[in-house]
Amino acid sequence: MDRLGYQVSRRRISRIMKENSLVSNYTVAQYKIYSNSCNESNIPNIVDRDFDDRDKLEVAVSEATNKILKIEFIYQNKFVTLKELELQLAEYIYWYNHIRIHGSLGYVTPIEYRNEAVPEMAA
Q: Does residue 6 fall inside a structural domain?
């Protein structure tokens, strides 16, 4: 085929062989449809559910928070004991909520933002 200037893929060759009833062991083994009891069962997907807009917002906020926690805290530290992790995590959460300013909140801390938005929650 190369001598004649044709460029043909294996998939194209196997399709031509199948069309002409020239099936080899190679093509049969490679393109055999795989099935087992798991992907053939009629069990419904119970995780598939509708989300309303509030759920979507909560998921987005949660994902963004987890990303920040990983980048700023987990990837930057090594923990020897579980107690050390718990202590440093508590310190990080305090710093994140009370000291670190957030651009998305108008460059104030989350606690300051909450206190301005809902004054009766101010402690």
A: no
